[in-house]
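User: Okay, second chain of the day. Same drill as before: sequence in, C-alpha coordinates out.
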Amino acid sequence: MTLISKKMILDLVDLTKPRICFLSLVMAAWGFLLGTNGHPFSMPTFVSLLLGLGLVGGASGVFNQIVEKEIDAKMHRTHQRPLPAGRVEERHAHVLGFFLLVLGEILLVFGVNPLTAVLAAFTVLSYIGMYTPSKQTTAFSTLIGAVPGALPPLMGYTAATGQFGVLGLWIFTLLFLWQIPHFLAIGWLYRDDYARASLPILSVTDQRGEEVTKQVITYLLALVPLTLLPSVWKLTTETYLWGALGLGCLFLFAGIFLSWKKNRIGARWLFIVSILYLPALGLLMVGTLL
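Assistant: Same drill. C-alpha coordinates below.
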Protein backbone atom coordinates (compact mmCIF):
# COMPACT_ATOMS: atom_id res chain seq x y z
CA MET A 1 0.00 0.00 0.00
CA THR A 2 1.46 3.35 -1.04
CA LEU A 3 1.75 6.41 1.16
CA ILE A 4 -0.83 8.21 -0.96
CA SER A 5 -3.42 5.46 -0.54
CA LYS A 6 -2.84 5.44 3.20
CA LYS A 7 -3.45 9.19 3.33
CA MET A 8 -6.62 8.74 1.29
CA ILE A 9 -7.93 6.13 3.72
CA LEU A 10 -7.16 8.40 6.66
CA ASP A 11 -9.04 11.25 4.97
CA LEU A 12 -12.05 9.02 4.34
CA VAL A 13 -12.02 7.94 7.98
CA ASP A 14 -11.75 11.61 9.01
CA LEU A 15 -14.93 12.34 7.05
CA THR A 16 -16.87 10.02 9.35
CA LYS A 17 -15.97 12.07 12.46
CA PRO A 18 -14.66 9.00 14.34
CA ARG A 19 -14.39 10.67 17.76
CA ILE A 20 -18.07 11.65 17.72
CA CYS A 21 -18.97 8.17 16.49
CA PHE A 22 -17.01 6.60 19.33
CA LEU A 23 -18.81 8.67 21.95
CA SER A 24 -22.16 7.76 20.36
CA LEU A 25 -21.28 4.06 20.54
CA VAL A 26 -20.30 4.37 24.19
CA MET A 27 -23.69 5.96 24.90
CA ALA A 28 -25.47 3.29 22.87
CA ALA A 29 -23.67 0.59 24.87
CA TRP A 30 -24.81 2.27 28.09
CA GLY A 31 -28.40 2.26 26.87
CA PHE A 32 -28.12 -1.40 25.85
CA LEU A 33 -26.78 -2.41 29.27
CA LEU A 34 -29.65 -0.57 30.94
CA GLY A 35 -32.10 -2.42 28.73
CA THR A 36 -30.60 -5.83 29.47
CA ASN A 37 -30.51 -5.30 33.24
CA GLY A 38 -32.12 -8.42 34.68
CA HIS A 39 -32.45 -10.00 31.22
CA PRO A 40 -30.18 -12.24 29.10
CA PHE A 41 -27.38 -10.38 27.32
CA SER A 42 -27.39 -11.03 23.55
CA MET A 43 -23.87 -10.63 22.20
CA PRO A 44 -24.92 -10.91 18.50
CA THR A 45 -27.49 -8.13 18.98
CA PHE A 46 -24.97 -5.99 20.86
CA VAL A 47 -22.31 -6.39 18.16
CA SER A 48 -24.84 -5.70 15.39
CA LEU A 49 -25.95 -2.57 17.25
CA LEU A 50 -22.41 -1.20 17.56
CA LEU A 51 -21.49 -2.03 13.97
CA GLY A 52 -24.76 -0.69 12.57
CA LEU A 53 -24.73 2.52 14.58
CA GLY A 54 -21.05 3.00 13.84
CA LEU A 55 -21.74 2.85 10.10
CA VAL A 56 -24.84 5.08 10.29
CA GLY A 57 -23.03 7.54 12.55
CA GLY A 58 -20.13 7.61 10.09
CA ALA A 59 -22.56 8.36 7.28
CA SER A 60 -24.01 11.22 9.30
CA GLY A 61 -20.53 12.67 9.76
CA VAL A 62 -19.82 12.43 6.03
CA PHE A 63 -23.07 14.13 5.02
CA ASN A 64 -22.52 16.83 7.64
CA GLN A 65 -19.11 17.65 6.22
CA ILE A 66 -20.53 17.73 2.69
CA VAL A 67 -23.23 20.21 3.68
CA GLU A 68 -20.84 22.34 5.76
CA LYS A 69 -17.95 22.31 3.29
CA GLU A 70 -18.08 26.06 2.66
CA ILE A 71 -18.53 26.86 6.37
CA ASP A 72 -15.61 24.62 7.33
CA ALA A 73 -13.40 26.43 4.83
CA LYS A 74 -13.90 29.70 6.76
CA MET A 75 -12.99 28.35 10.21
CA HIS A 76 -9.45 27.84 11.48
CA ARG A 77 -10.23 24.61 13.30
CA THR A 78 -11.97 22.99 10.30
CA HIS A 79 -10.42 24.45 7.14
CA GLN A 80 -8.01 21.51 6.86
CA ARG A 81 -10.77 18.91 6.80
CA PRO A 82 -10.63 16.66 3.70
CA LEU A 83 -13.36 18.41 1.69
CA PRO A 84 -12.51 22.11 2.13
CA ALA A 85 -8.80 21.27 1.79
CA GLY A 86 -9.53 19.51 -1.51
CA ARG A 87 -8.05 16.15 -0.52
CA VAL A 88 -11.33 14.30 -1.16
CA GLU A 89 -13.77 14.98 -3.99
CA GLU A 90 -17.36 15.64 -2.99
CA ARG A 91 -18.70 12.89 -5.26
CA HIS A 92 -16.51 10.36 -3.49
CA ALA A 93 -17.80 11.59 -0.13
CA HIS A 94 -21.39 11.11 -1.33
CA VAL A 95 -20.64 7.52 -2.35
CA LEU A 96 -19.02 6.80 1.00
CA GLY A 97 -21.90 8.35 2.94
CA PHE A 98 -24.63 6.42 1.14
CA PHE A 99 -22.66 3.17 1.32
CA LEU A 100 -22.21 3.48 5.08
CA LEU A 101 -25.84 4.49 5.62
CA VAL A 102 -27.33 1.61 3.62
CA LEU A 103 -25.01 -1.00 5.11
CA GLY A 104 -25.62 0.29 8.63
CA GLU A 105 -29.39 0.28 8.23
CA ILE A 106 -29.32 -3.28 6.86
CA LEU A 107 -27.36 -4.41 9.92
CA LEU A 108 -29.77 -2.67 12.29
CA VAL A 109 -32.92 -4.01 10.61
CA PHE A 110 -31.81 -7.63 10.45
CA GLY A 111 -29.31 -7.80 13.30
CA VAL A 112 -31.15 -5.69 15.88
CA ASN A 113 -34.77 -4.61 15.22
CA PRO A 114 -36.73 -2.27 12.91
CA LEU A 115 -37.45 0.28 15.68
CA THR A 116 -33.75 0.90 16.26
CA ALA A 117 -33.18 1.15 12.51
CA VAL A 118 -35.94 3.78 12.20
CA LEU A 119 -34.46 5.79 15.06
CA ALA A 120 -31.04 5.63 13.41
CA ALA A 121 -32.47 6.89 10.11
CA PHE A 122 -34.29 9.69 11.96
CA THR A 123 -31.02 10.63 13.67
CA VAL A 124 -29.30 11.16 10.33
CA LEU A 125 -32.25 13.03 8.80
CA SER A 126 -32.70 15.36 11.77
CA TYR A 127 -28.96 15.98 12.13
CA ILE A 128 -28.47 16.82 8.45
CA GLY A 129 -31.90 18.18 7.58
CA MET A 130 -32.66 20.18 10.74
CA TYR A 131 -29.62 20.83 12.91
CA THR A 132 -27.02 21.53 10.21
CA PRO A 133 -29.03 24.23 8.37
CA SER A 134 -30.31 25.73 11.64
CA LYS A 135 -26.73 26.60 12.64
CA GLN A 136 -26.78 29.26 9.92
CA THR A 137 -30.07 30.85 10.97
CA THR A 138 -30.75 30.64 14.70
CA ALA A 139 -29.09 30.60 18.11
CA PHE A 140 -31.47 27.77 19.04
CA SER A 141 -29.50 25.37 16.83
CA THR A 142 -27.87 23.83 19.93
CA LEU A 143 -31.28 22.73 21.22
CA ILE A 144 -32.22 21.36 17.81
CA GLY A 145 -28.97 19.43 17.53
CA ALA A 146 -29.35 18.03 21.03
CA VAL A 147 -32.27 15.87 19.85
CA PRO A 148 -30.36 13.65 17.37
CA GLY A 149 -27.36 13.86 19.68
CA ALA A 150 -29.38 12.27 22.51
CA LEU A 151 -30.73 9.36 20.46
CA PRO A 152 -27.77 6.89 20.62
CA PRO A 153 -28.44 5.71 24.21
CA LEU A 154 -32.15 5.44 23.44
CA MET A 155 -31.28 3.30 20.42
CA GLY A 156 -29.15 1.13 22.68
CA TYR A 157 -32.15 0.66 24.96
CA THR A 158 -34.55 -0.13 22.09
CA ALA A 159 -32.00 -2.59 20.72
CA ALA A 160 -32.13 -4.52 23.99
CA THR A 161 -35.87 -4.23 24.68
CA GLY A 162 -37.61 -3.50 21.39
CA GLN A 163 -39.46 -0.56 22.98
CA PHE A 164 -38.83 2.90 24.41
CA GLY A 165 -39.51 2.36 28.12
CA VAL A 166 -39.07 4.73 31.05
CA LEU A 167 -35.33 4.07 31.35
CA GLY A 168 -34.86 4.64 27.64
CA LEU A 169 -36.59 8.01 27.82
CA TRP A 170 -34.63 8.81 31.00
CA ILE A 171 -31.25 8.28 29.37
CA PHE A 172 -32.38 10.21 26.27
CA THR A 173 -33.34 13.18 28.47
CA LEU A 174 -30.10 12.90 30.43
CA LEU A 175 -27.97 13.13 27.30
CA PHE A 176 -30.13 15.95 25.91
CA LEU A 177 -29.55 18.04 29.04
CA TRP A 178 -25.84 17.20 29.17
CA GLN A 179 -25.24 18.41 25.63
CA ILE A 180 -26.32 22.01 26.26
CA PRO A 181 -23.56 23.04 28.72
CA HIS A 182 -21.09 20.87 26.80
CA PHE A 183 -21.72 22.56 23.45
CA LEU A 184 -22.09 26.02 24.95
CA ALA A 185 -18.59 25.56 26.34
CA ILE A 186 -17.33 24.57 22.89
CA GLY A 187 -19.14 27.54 21.37
CA TRP A 188 -17.40 29.88 23.80
CA LEU A 189 -13.97 28.40 23.10
CA TYR A 190 -14.40 28.79 19.34
CA ARG A 191 -16.67 31.84 19.26
CA ASP A 192 -14.27 33.75 16.96
CA ASP A 193 -14.27 30.89 14.48
CA TYR A 194 -18.06 30.68 14.51
CA ALA A 195 -18.31 34.45 14.05
CA ARG A 196 -15.89 34.23 11.12
CA ALA A 197 -18.22 31.72 9.48
CA SER A 198 -21.27 33.96 10.26
CA LEU A 199 -22.91 31.30 12.42
CA PRO A 200 -25.31 32.97 14.90
CA ILE A 201 -24.83 30.52 17.75
CA LEU A 202 -25.47 31.80 21.25
CA SER A 203 -21.81 32.34 22.14
CA VAL A 204 -21.54 34.67 19.12
CA THR A 205 -24.76 36.63 19.63
CA ASP A 206 -24.24 36.87 23.41
CA GLN A 207 -20.76 38.37 23.62
CA ARG A 208 -21.02 39.23 27.33
CA GLY A 209 -21.97 35.66 28.17
CA GLU A 210 -24.97 36.49 30.33
CA GLU A 211 -27.44 34.26 28.45
CA VAL A 212 -24.84 31.54 27.84
CA THR A 213 -24.05 31.14 31.52
CA LYS A 214 -27.73 31.39 32.45
CA GLN A 215 -28.52 28.46 30.17
CA VAL A 216 -25.53 26.47 31.41
CA ILE A 217 -26.68 26.76 35.03
CA THR A 218 -30.34 26.11 34.15
CA TYR A 219 -29.61 22.88 32.30
CA LEU A 220 -27.17 21.67 34.94
CA LEU A 221 -29.76 22.27 37.67
CA ALA A 222 -32.15 20.10 35.68
CA LEU A 223 -29.52 17.44 34.95
CA VAL A 224 -28.28 16.77 38.48
CA PRO A 225 -31.62 15.68 40.04
CA LEU A 226 -32.47 13.71 36.90
CA THR A 227 -29.37 11.56 37.37
CA LEU A 228 -30.59 10.58 40.85
CA LEU A 229 -33.85 9.04 39.62
CA PRO A 230 -32.45 5.48 39.20
CA SER A 231 -31.80 5.48 42.95
CA VAL A 232 -35.33 6.75 43.62
CA TRP A 233 -36.59 3.89 41.45
CA LYS A 234 -34.36 1.51 43.49
CA LEU A 235 -32.46 0.32 40.42
CA THR A 236 -29.00 1.08 41.79
CA THR A 237 -27.11 0.86 45.04
CA GLU A 238 -26.49 3.75 47.41
CA THR A 239 -23.00 4.05 45.92
CA TYR A 240 -24.53 5.33 42.69
CA LEU A 241 -26.65 7.89 44.54
CA TRP A 242 -23.68 9.53 46.25
CA GLY A 243 -21.40 9.12 43.26
CA ALA A 244 -23.91 10.69 40.87
CA LEU A 245 -24.53 13.51 43.33
CA GLY A 246 -20.79 14.16 43.64
CA LEU A 247 -20.27 14.15 39.87
CA GLY A 248 -23.26 16.42 39.42
CA CYS A 249 -21.95 18.91 41.98
CA LEU A 250 -18.58 18.94 40.23
CA PHE A 251 -20.28 19.62 36.88
CA LEU A 252 -22.44 22.33 38.43
CA PHE A 253 -19.40 23.92 40.07
CA ALA A 254 -17.70 24.10 36.66
CA GLY A 255 -20.79 25.86 35.30
CA ILE A 256 -20.79 28.31 38.23
CA PHE A 257 -17.10 28.96 37.66
CA LEU A 258 -17.81 29.91 34.04
CA SER A 259 -20.71 32.10 35.18
CA TRP A 260 -18.34 33.87 37.57
CA LYS A 261 -15.33 34.26 35.27
CA LYS A 262 -17.06 34.53 31.88
CA ASN A 263 -13.84 33.79 30.01
CA ARG A 264 -12.07 31.09 28.01
CA ILE A 265 -10.55 29.55 31.14
CA GLY A 266 -14.00 28.96 32.59
CA ALA A 267 -15.27 27.59 29.29
CA ARG A 268 -12.32 25.23 29.00
CA TRP A 269 -12.84 23.88 32.51
CA LEU A 270 -16.53 23.32 31.81
CA PHE A 271 -15.66 21.51 28.59
CA ILE A 272 -13.12 19.24 30.32
CA VAL A 273 -15.48 18.40 33.17
CA SER A 274 -18.33 17.68 30.73
CA ILE A 275 -16.12 15.24 28.81
CA LEU A 276 -15.14 13.38 32.00
CA TYR A 277 -18.61 13.50 33.56
CA LEU A 278 -20.54 11.37 31.10
CA PRO A 279 -18.38 8.21 30.97
CA ALA A 280 -17.83 8.44 34.73
CA LEU A 281 -21.58 8.53 35.36
CA GLY A 282 -22.17 5.68 32.92
CA LEU A 283 -19.53 3.44 34.49
CA LEU A 284 -20.84 4.26 37.95
CA MET A 285 -24.38 3.32 37.02
CA VAL A 286 -23.52 0.12 35.15
CA GLY A 287 -21.33 -0.95 38.06
CA THR A 288 -24.02 -0.39 40.66
CA LEU A 289 -27.16 -1.74 38.97
CA LEU A 290 -29.08 -4.00 41.32
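The domain at 1-163 is CATH 1.10.357.140 (Tetracycline Repressor; domain 2).

User: Thanks, on to the next one.
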